[in-house]
Amino acid sequence: MRYLLRRTVHALFLVLGVSILAFLFTALAPGNYFDEMRLNPQISPEAVAALRAQYELDRPLPLRYLSWMNSVLHGQMGYSFAYNSPVAPILFARARNTLLLTITATLIAWAIALPLGIWSAERFGRLPDRLLTWATAALLIVPDLALTLGLLVLAVRTGWFPTGGMTSLDFGSLPPGGKLRDLALHMTLPVVALVLSALPLLIRHVRAAVAEVLDAPFMLAAKGHGIPRRTLLYHYALRAAANPLISLFGFSIGALLSGSLLIEVVMSWPGLGPLLLESILSRDLYVVIGGVLLSTLFLVSGNFLADILLYWADPRIRTESGVR
Amino acid sequence: MSAPRTFVKWLVTLGSLHAIVVCAGFFTPYDPIEQDRKNPYFPPMRLHLVDEQGRLHLRPFVYALKLRAGTFDQYEPDTSQSVPVKFFKSGARYRLLGFVPSRIHLFGSEGTRICLLGTDAYGRDQFSRLLYGGQISLLAGILGAGCTLSIGLCVGAAAGYFGGWRDNALMRAAEVFLALPWLYLLFALRAFLPLSVSPLKAFFLIVAVIGAVGWARPARLVRGVVLSAKERDFVRAARGFGASDFYLLRRHILPETSSVLLTQAAILIPQFVLAEMTLSFLGLGVPEPTPSWGNLLSSLQQYSVLVSYWWMYIPAMAMVPFFLGYLGLASSLQERLEPYKIERRIPGGLA
Amino acid sequence: MKSEESIADQDARPILKVASLAKRYTKRSLGGRREELFALNGIDFSILPGTTLAVVGESGSGKSTLALCVACLERPTSGSIWFENRDVVTLAENERREIRPQIQLVFQDPANSLNPRWNALQILIEPFVLQKTIKNGERKERAFSLLERVGLSSQIAGRLPSELSGGQRQRLAIARALTLEPKLLILDEALSALDCSVQAQIANLLMELQSSLGMTYLFITHDLAMAAQLADEIAVMSRGRIVEHGSAEEVLREPKHESTRHLLAAVPRIPRTPSSVIG
């Protein structure tokens, strides 16, 4: 129990630290949203000043941080200059789109990587394993950017898939089945890009973790007892290899919001990525901080989830930490 | 093949690839920023040895391009004009390795230009831009990695050697940095610095930004090595001879970190090159007209380019042989230094 | 066993006096619980110059901690260590740095105590470099004469520790310890990692060095038999305390404490007459 408490405190501390860092950093950066406005001769300096006061840009930094923290705890996350509306709804709407993509991709990637990794570990060092290792290496060395752009070129030249966006222009007038199909078509390329970029490392890690376990003496003993192969693999080996895999899984969860930035931007998927890029470029302070905070929250929660799962799954951690 | 020999093999391969990029002036026929607006978006010219009539030529040649009938931007080979490839041709001035002035290029042609990878919107030869762009991108990656590893070394050594509250504070800071999404941090950091600067300034800005973002993981690794090295008896013995902390770190402890640093370098450099590519692709990196692998791809953001000018995609794959080289190097380094672990540490962003 | 006569030229004042020495370690376990461990729990002894005191104990009794504290490489939690009438514990760091060269430590495992990347010459010269006592030109000469002193040929000067045998390595470690002409030499299980025959050779070397250089030894070991051979006095340590102290003869003939008896029993005894075994 103590262990969990410590991990919770730790996670909270991290989120707090990140929020301070992000706030400090965006607020201290040269240039802000209203510089552009100031240059515009049509807007009077008084109007700019009034807007600045409205957004509290002239108050000292620690106070701004505290009032922002206050609003976060109340569920809002500040105000967006560019969109002229509260930040939270914008963020959450975009985050929903991102999650649609990343959750699908993560599920698919794990569904492929686990069996493949185990299959490869079983045949460690032999030809099928070596072929797979080569294939994953080949995928690994192709940079994400190249992969994504390549898929886009493919889409354009074959015309099988739409080349961007989340929905077609006539989405609203489609029947429900048609809507689903349209969404699925638009999702295919980004999801494929995400899965292809995540697969090589996943497979490698699963393979390494399972291979190390398969080598262990207790597996040999279990085999000698005549336990069937299926049980051996999934019941014994996988459980023993769980530790690094759970950490990996935590990391996958953590990357749900942040891992698809590039792909979203390149494929014009209306997720958190393009929003963040655009608000960074236009210095829309609170959107940036809100976005960074949200994705950090996911990262930290992912690790935290992994810690909890580890605690539950690995009896060694329980005994080490509390009862003596 | 034994571990040391694979290592050498990868080193040599990687070294040759880098050498080609470093000597871009020699290997490319034209100046990378030389424009030719009358010939935008030429497709790649293929090298031929056998011509239309089936005759074998000893000297490879390309066909000049002519506009395809009925289009205004599609070109096709003009088989009536063959342009022979001349080797070791004198051409535009450049400086080999930055200081040796020369005019000799590996290949070139008279009159019509040979564009092995086609041209872009301004008629600039993509092949030349590719190699010159490699200089920028690779250098950014290498310098960035150097930056990160230096910071990581200092922080990790300080934390591991001095321990106590300093260790705690530094490691907590590292955790906060590790908790931030890497790419976001990179963009934010870059975008919050002045956006329109000269190419040179932009370059150093990117290097500094990339370097400042990734120090946490190397710092942790260095700290681990320093912690265990600190307890070795030869360090104690040196203290018994009156060694100062600085001497111990410099002569006994830090040399132990060399293997970790080397392996991390092989892992980080490709990641950082990719970071530069991403930044430049989105317009946050090296600006025009200086080529870099990233900004060579930025035209692909336009739909028309995607549809009609597929050869603009080629720079995206330029990184691949380098990635392969670095991956192989990292693997063989790990094998060499820790042969008893089954691929425990795998290159990439994961723990 | 050393004869009483070789404890000649003794100054009535001890060269080293340790009083109420204590060292506490706190460990923090994963659950946040703190554990306190007293490695040294009130140690008192003194050594007369030119003699050998053996501190004998099982593993875990705190012997290595004692070695580190006396060598000024660890700070004790409380107590005092008097070296030539100065209490080392109360000195400032720079003063302690002056004293350290006079108390040298030979470690148990030369594989760990010699930098594996340096060759023998570099290892020997290092103390000169650090102390800046001898001029650059003379350093190599000194190093070679030290090699000779400990019975190593000058050919090993360019070799790495991995290219030397166990006995050679330990000789090198001893040579290194002698470079700054220390007055007190602490041998922390210095013979334990060596083969039997090599042990005897190194032991002889140590005895010879002591008589010719007049050094004082603090000999730490778990082997009572070895202590008996080399030491004038024996102190038995158990769980951070000294439980028995006396001349070598006394301790062996009439062991008073249970730990001593334990250690005595651990010494393998070979029957005097082989015939009683074979015949």
Can you tell me about this structure?
The complex is a heterotrimer of chains A (324), B (351) and C (279). With 324 residues, chain A is an all-alpha fold. Chain A is built from 15 helices and 2 strands. In chain A, helix 11 packs antiparallel against helix 14 (285-313) and helix 14 (285-313) crosses helix 15 (315-321). The mean pLDDT of chain A is 81. Chain B has 351 residues and is of the alpha+beta class. Chain B has a 3-stranded antiparallel β-sheet with strand order 1-2-3, with no helix packed on it. Chain B has a two-stranded antiparallel sheet with strand order 4-5. In chain B, strand 2 and strand 3 (75-84) form a beta hairpin. In chain B, helix 1 packs across helix 3. The longest helix of chain B has 37 residues, at 126-162. The radius of gyration of chain B is 25 Å and the shape is elongated. Chain C has 279 residues and is an alpha/beta fold. Chain C has helices at residues 63-70, 93-99, 110-113, 120-131, 136-149, 166-178, 196-213, 224-230, 248-253, 258-266, 275-278, and strands at residues 16-28, 34-47, 52-57, 78-83, 86-87, 103-106, 184-188, 216-221, 233-238, 241-247. In chain C, the strands form 2 sheets. In chain C, strands 6-7-8-3-9-10 form a 6-stranded mixed β-sheet, sandwiched between helices. In chain C, strands 2-1-4-5 form a 4-stranded antiparallel β-sheet, with helices on one face. In chain C, strand 7, helix 7 and strand 8 form a beta-alpha-beta unit. Chains in contact: A-B, A-C, B-C. At the A-B interface, helix 1, helix 7, helix 8, helix 11 and helix 12 of A face helix 4, helix 5, helix 10, helix 12 and helix 13 of B.
